[in-house]
Amino acid sequence: MTAAPAQALLLASMLFALGLLGVLVRRNLLFMLMSIEIMLNAAALAFVAAGMRWHAADGQVMFLMILALAAAEAAVGLAILLRLHAAGRPTLDADTGNRLKG
Amino acid sequence: MTTSMPFLLSALVAVWATFMVVTRAVAIHALLYLVVALLALACVFDVLGAPFAAILEVIVYAGAIMVLFVFVVMMLNLGRPDRLRENSWIAPRGWIGPGLLAALLLAALADALVVAAPDGGPIAVIDTRQVGLALYGPYVLMVELASFLLLAGLVSAFRIGRHIRGEDAP
């Protein structure tokens, strides 16, 4: 009774495809950021699955790096989103981001 | 090669919750589903023999980053018009092209996975001690780089959010 690494990689692929679908479909910046978090999670799962396959700790080290990257990305992305909202923009439509000033 | 039941259940919950995240119209509902997906993914990590990654997934992702998202949703003060507009944005017509692209990507990735790789044997738990030894041994430069990245994220988030009220922006 084991979970083969191929199945974990298949799960990672499905999560990544769902995240890509979210980034492509949604126009709301908040949902796009959430979908990017999903895609980063899928990549982290692929690293952990590879570390499980080779019985090495390197996969979890890369998971930690992805964690730091996701934290920085969420902080900067949400700050930009709040800035867009505070500039009097009525919606969070990603297409209106080209009028950002300052 | 049989799949263990906890892995299968956690994977099903993760995929279903992620699908719900992508299709919700209300931001806070999507966030709650995202928390469910992250907890299910933490269970997957634990099944895969990575308890340290599972704990960090719960603490940092489901704890810290999701709380950041919840704060932003509270500050944005979304209401009923936003929900109606969001519903009009996710009309079924717009799903065809992106759905095809995502299905194509999934097919390509799954096709790359059918290569019969030899199984790695039973799962060995890689505990925190081994991760820490690898982290501060051969990967110590990457720890420094991660600290650089977090410092840069802190500074830029502070700079961007400094005059959030909109007055006297320099």
From TrEMBL, chain A:
E.C. designation(s): 7.1.1.-
Domain of life assignment: Bacteria
Cell membrane keyword on record: yes
Compartment annotation: Cell membrane; Membrane
Membrane topology: Multi-pass membrane protein
Biological processes annotated in GO: ATP synthesis coupled electron transport
Transmembrane portions of the chain: 6-26, 38-56, 62-82
Entry function: NDH-1 shuttles electrons from NADH, via FMN and iron-sulfur (Fe-S) centers, to quinones in the respiratory chain. The immediate electron acceptor for the enzyme in this species is believed to be ubiquinone. Couples the redox reaction to proton translocation (for every two electrons transferred, four hydrogen ions are translocated across the cytoplasmic membrane), and thus conserves the redox energy in a proton gradient.
Protein name in the entry: NADH-quinone oxidoreductase subunit K
